[in-house]
């Protein structure tokens, strides 16, 4: 097993007044040749957008784009005619495929929205663009993993890749084992809140750990903690 820890403060930064963004991988004006991607995981942006502000209409193609609001409401419009509000507790995925144009704005004018935008390289290129959004209860991930993105669909939003996103909220002292689902897949652990011990590595809020060559990732909460586990193919 190989692990690499990334402390929160080591991420790339973008400050644009209306936008505060932290980049786990090279993105826009932030470039680090050592942080281009982790397998099929290409982008993990931790964004805070001021009230009424947002990203104007722009294009994407051949990318699986997942948005997870952590606080507030995000308004989405795209070239398929969709106009949706993504709220805390929701998970949205957009398969850009052959090409799509979209915008994302803070739905509220009186408070910020905080959300994760995550890009996954697709398994099949040039598919028809698609959109899916589901709501998930925090109670259903208390001291257990809740799969919210999966190539199998079911209760999770479907992704065009052999990738899985799982959320868990852990009481202090709780220990969980994450079972790797795909042979040869790697795991990227992102701590949303709290402090955890991941196979002996101590991670705090917004710290991350990339791990390869493992079948099980053990996570023990040293305080109340919320975590996101992203499992992706490494051979891309």
* Text of the CATH class of the largest domain: Mainly Beta
Find the CATH topology of the largest domain: Jelly Rolls
Largest sheet descriptor: 7 strands, mixed
C-alpha end-to-end distance: 19 Å
Q: Could you tell me the mean pLDDT?
A: 96
Order of helices and strands: EEEEEEEEEEEEEEEEEEEEEE
Oligomer: single chain
Which structural class do the helices and strands define?
Answer: mainly beta
Question: What is the count of distinct domains?
Answer: 2
Radius of gyration: 17 Å
Strand content: over 45%
Percent helix range: under 10%
Strand order, biggest sheet?
Answer: 1-20-17-22-15-13-14
**Morphology:** globular
Considering the protein shown, what is the CATH homologous superfamily of the largest domain? Jelly Rolls
Tally the helices: what do you get? 0
What are the SSEs and their pairings?
Elements: E1 2-6, E2 12-15, E3 19-23, E4 41-49, E5 54-60, E6 64-71, E7 73-78, E8 83-87, E9 90-95, E10 100-106, E11 113-120, E12 130-135, E13 146-150, E14 157-158, E15 164-170, E16 175-179, E17 186-193, E18 196-198, E19 201-203, E20 208-212, E21 216-221, E22 225-232
Parallel strand pairs: 13-14
Antiparallel strand pairs: 1-20, 2-3, 3-4, 4-11, 5-10, 6-9, 6-11, 7-8, 7-10, 9-12, 13-15, 15-22, 16-21, 17-20, 17-22, 18-19, 18-21
